[in-house]
Amino acid sequence: MTGRPAPGDDKPAEPTSFVPTQLPPAPTTPPPVPAPAPTAQRRLAKAPFIAVALCAALLTGAAGFWWGSNGAADSAGPLDHVEISGGELTEGGADSDCDDSDSFSYNDCDTDTTYTFKYKVKNEGDDLANYSAVVNAFDEDGNFLGQTYIAARHLAPGKTDSDEGEFNEYSTLEGDSELSDIATVRLAHVERTTLAN
Length: 197
What we know:
The chain is α+β, with helices and mostly antiparallel strands. It has 1 helix and 6 strands.
């Protein structure tokens, strides 16, 4: 408080100072500190992770491109390695060395009716390979009748394997179809398995 001069006193009164007798209570939690702004050092710390992620994405893309375009000159894949030709219904006699005393359920001495076709497999790859293929049979209207399988084993690069495939009395045909209903055969699927040795 500031004092007022007393009447007749020329001198002003000296101010009285106020001294608190008690301090305010201290806060229970520290005041919030703002997070420091990202520094160049923190951004540089993330750079290796970003570089690794970018490299992984590029490698994945390159691998997908390689896998998808592998054998671009061979666009049909191993389907180009196999040819099917011919196809005729044949009625054959019993095998000359037929033997019905074995444990198999079919009768070797029966006459065989088959629909035979020729196939040729050429290994156009750079490694030894096994081939297995699905051949579908169709009637004269183009309706699917059944399928059979052909194979070539341990075929060296550039080498060819030729043989005959067949649909026979043990082939499963659609509905009441018979071997005599087969009008044409077509290659449906080929798998090529690369061999290490």
